[in-house]
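Per reviewer request, we include the raw input and output of the structure prediction for the construct analysed in the revised manuscript.
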Amino acid sequence: EVQLVESGGGLVQAGGSLRLSCAASGFNFDDYHIGWFRQAPGKEREGVSCISSSDGSTYYVDSVKGRFTISGDNAKNTVYLQMNSLKPEDTAVYYCAADSGYGCAVRLENYYGMDYWGEGTLVTVFS
C-alpha cells in the first residue's frame, strides 16, 4: 500500500551529474517531510538532504552543500535530488524516507523511527 520508490542511480564519472527521484504513494504526501539518506560500503547511514512538509524549506548536510539540490512536485507526489559535481566519496546506496513528526534539521542527524523508507538506488562515482 505505502510505497516510496527511488530511481535515477547509476555509474558516473567524477564531476558528472545524476538526478534521483523518489515517487510516493499510499499516504498523504503533503503531510510528510521527505529526506534523502545514503549508506556507503562499510559505513553508517547518514542524512544528505531534506525538504520540509510545512513550508518547503530545504536542508543539506555540509558535505553536499552547493552541489546537491532537493526539490518537490506535489502534483506528482515526487521528490528529486539533483546531484552535481559528483565525487567518489558520494558513492553509496541512496534512500528516501518520509516522516510526519519532528523536523528536517533533526531528521538529517537522527533518522531512527521515520515512518516510511524506500529500498534504495545505487550511485557509483569513479575517478
